[in-house]
Amino acid sequence: MKSTMWSRRAFLQAAGAAIPAAFAFKADAVERALSASQSVADKTPDEVAKDEFFWREIQLGFKLDRTLINLNNGFTCPTPRVALEAVWRYMDMVNMLPVHYQGMIAKNAETIRLRMAAEFGCDPEEMALTRGASEALQIAQNGLDLQPGDEVVTTEQDYPRMLTTWDQRMRRQGIKVTRIQFAVPAGQDDLYRMFEKAITPKTKVFHFCHITNLTAQLFPVQRLSRLARSKGIVTIVDGAHALGHFPFKLRDLECDAYGVSLHKWLLAPLGNGCLYVRREMIPKFWPLQAAPELQDDDIRKFEAIGTHPWAIRAGLGEALAFHQAIGAERKAARLRYLTLRWANELKQHPKVKILSNLAEPAETWGVCAVYIEGIDVRDLAKFLMDKYRIVSVPLVGGAPPNQVFDYQALRISPNVYTTLEEIDTFVTAMKDAADNGVPSTQAAADVSPFDGVLWANLR
Ligand SMILES: Cc1ncc(COP(=O)(O)O)c(C=O)c1O
Q1: Which residue's CA is the nearest one to ligand 1's atom 7?
Q2: How would you list the strands of the sheet with 273-277, edge to edge?
C-alpha cells in the first residue's frame, strides 16, 4: 500500500517536473485536482477516500486559517482560491467599464447554465442561477398561486427562513400550513407515510428538505414527488445542503422545484445558488421580481433581479470545474469517510449519541449530529472552541415560525480540505468533554426561546 502511494507521489512530482518550474508552482486548484484524479483513475471512490496524498493535493487549493479547526462547513464554505481569484478578476474587469462588461459577462455566463445543467442532470432551460437557496426557494414558495384555505405540508425541521416564508403567506393570504414532526434519525418509509397521512383535499404543496440542515436527515424525494404528482400536489424541495454534496441527478428526483445554496457544498463563491424548475411547471411559478409576460415560460424570468455583481456568478464556473476535477463520487466518499472516522469512534463511548443515520446504504456524508448525555450543547461548543479551537454549531430548537425539535446536538461538518489530524483532534476533544465534563455557562442555563432560535440559526 505504502509503495503505491509513494509511486503516485512520484507520478505527481513527475507531472510537475514535465512543465516549467515557475508554472508548476502556480498550478491552480483545478489543475492540481485534475492531475491528482488522473493518478487515481484506476481506484474506486472508497479507495481514494482514504488516500491522504490525493486529498493533500485538494487541500492545497485553499487558503485557510489552520489555527482553527473548521467543522462547521454546513454554513458557507471557503471557496477554492481559483474561484476567489476569478471573482476578483471579473470584478476588476467590470469596474473598468461596467456598462460594457456587465452585459458581456451576463451573456457569457450562459455557459455556466449549460455546464450546471449537464453536471446535475437537467435541461439548461430548467436551471436558473440565483444568489442562494433562500432566494431560490422563496421564488418557488411565493411564486405559486394559492387561495385562502389551501394547504401546504412541510416539517418542523425545515429551514427557519423557509418556514417563515410560509408563515408570512399564512398571515397574509390565509393559507394553512401543516408542519410534520419526526424523531431523528427517521426511516424513509416513516417519512413517506407521514406526508401521505397529512394530505387533505385542500393540500396543494409539499415542501421538505432533501437533507435537513440539522441532522442531515435524508428524505425520499422521488417517492414523495410521485405521491404528490398523483394527487395534483406541487413539490418544492430544499436542496440547500444536497447538491454538490453527494451525487444524484435533478431530473431523477421528479420534483417540481428544487432550490440550492451553491456556496455550501459546491464551494462556490459566496452569493451563488440555483433553482431547478421542471419545464412544464415554469409558467406556474411567478418570479419574485416582475418579468414581462413574454418570459412566462422562460427560466430566465427568475433571474430578473436588476443590477447585481456578475463577477460572483462568473466565479461559479471555476468552482464547478474544481468540483468536476475532484469527481462527485470521490468527494462524497471522502466526506463519508471523514464522518465515519469520528462517528464510529465516538459512538463507542457510553455517553455519546449520534442522531444521523450511519448505516449502509449511505444516507449520511459530510453532515452528522452528535451530543453527549448530560452536557448542554452550547457549553460543549464553547468548550471545543475555547480549549481546542474547534468551530462547530450547537443546535437547539426554537418556537414557530422557526424550527421546532426536542433534541440538542452539535452539528459536525468537515469538508474536502479537512485533515485526518483535525478529525482526530475532534475525537480527543469530545472524549475529554465526555470523561471530564465542561464548564457550564450562564448562556446555556438562562437561554430564552429567542436565544434558542439564534443558536439554531448559526449556520
Ligand atoms: C436547509 C437550508 N435551506 C435554505 C438555506 C438558505 O440558504 P442561503 O443561505 O443560501 O440562502 C439554508 C442555509 O443554511 C439551509 O441550510
Answers
A1: 133
A2: 127-130, 273-277, 257-261, 234-238, 203-209, 151-155, 176-180
Q: Looking at residue 428, what is its pLDDT? A: 98
Ligand 1 centroid–CA 439 distance in Å is 32
Mean pLDDT of 220-240: 98
Q: Ligand 1: which of 130, 241, 263, 393 to mutate, most ligand atoms within 8 Å of CB?
A: 241
Closest atom, ligand 1, to C-alpha of 238 = 3
- What is the three-class DSSP state of 296? coil
- pTM given for the model: 0.92
Q: Is 238 in the pocket of ligand 1 (CB under 6 A)?
A: yes
Other CB atoms within a 10 A radius of the CB of residue 380 amount to: 24
Short-list 192, 194, 195, 207, CA closest to 146: 207
Query: What H or E segment, with its residue span, contains residue 127?
Result: strand 127-130
- Name the CA radius of gyration of the chain, rounded: 23
Q: What is the pLDDT of residue 441?
A: 83
Count the alpha carbons within 13 Å of 204 in the hemisphere toward its beta carbon.
16
Three cell numbers at 347? 459512538
State if residue 459 touches ligand 1 by the CB under 6 angstroms criterion: yes
Ligand 1 center–CA 293 separation, angstroms: 30
Residue 322 has pLDDT above 80, yes or no: yes
State how far the Cα of 85 lies from the Cα of 96, in Å rounded to an integer.
17
Contact 432, 352 (CB under 8 A): no
